[in-house]
Amino acid sequence: MLDTVAVADLVLDRLRMLPRIEVLDGEVKKTPAGAYVVFYDDAPRLSSRTLAGRANRAAWRLQTVCVGRDAAETRWVVGQILSTLTNWRPLQDRAASWITPQSDGAPILRDDSVAGDIRFSQTLTFRLTTTRS
After folding, report:
1. pLDDT by residue (tens digit) across 72-130?
2. Which of 46, 53, 54, 62 is a good FRET partner for 30, with 20 to 30 A between their CA atoms?
C-alpha cells in the first residue's frame, strides 16, 4: 500500500527547498506577499493485483497551483515546479516510482477579485506511479 502521508511530506519537503517560493499545503489561510504554490493530492488508485490478491501498482495524482504577481512570475514558478518534480523518484525502495506531468497545464489565469491585489495562477497536474519489486 502507498503511504500517501509520507509521500506528500516528501513532495512538500522537496518543494520547500525552492528559493523565493512559499509552499502551502492544501489551503491559503493568508495570501503570501510573493510567489507561492499550493499543493493538493488525491487518494491513490491501486491496480495490477497479484495472484495473492495484493495490489502491486499504485497511481497517485497531485496538483500544484502556481501563483505569481504577474504572468512572467507565474511562468517562472511553473518552470521551477516542473523541473523539481518531473521524473523525480521519491520512493527509492520501490522497483519503479516516478512523477510525471499529466497535462500541459491549464492556461495562466488572472485574478483581480481583491482590489489592489492582482494575482496570476496556473494549475499543474502530476502523477506518481509506483510498482512494488
Report:
1. 999 999 999 999 999 888 887 666 778 889 976 689 999 998 888 899 999 999 998 88
2. 62
Can you tell me the distance from the alpha carbon of 34 to that of 60, in angstroms, rounded to the nearest whole number? 29
SS3 at position 51: coil
Q: How far apart are the first and last CA of the chain?
A: 13
| Stated pTM of the model | 0.86
Burial of 64 (0-12, 13-18, 19+ CB in 10 A): buried
Residue 78 to residue 125: CA distance in whole angstroms: 11
Q: How far, CA to CA in Å, does 116 sit from each of 96, 109, 113?
A: 47, 16, 9
The vertex-12 CA angle with 11 and 14, nearest 5°, equals 65
Asked if residue 100 lies in contact with residue 87, where contact means CB atoms within 8 angstroms, the answer is yes
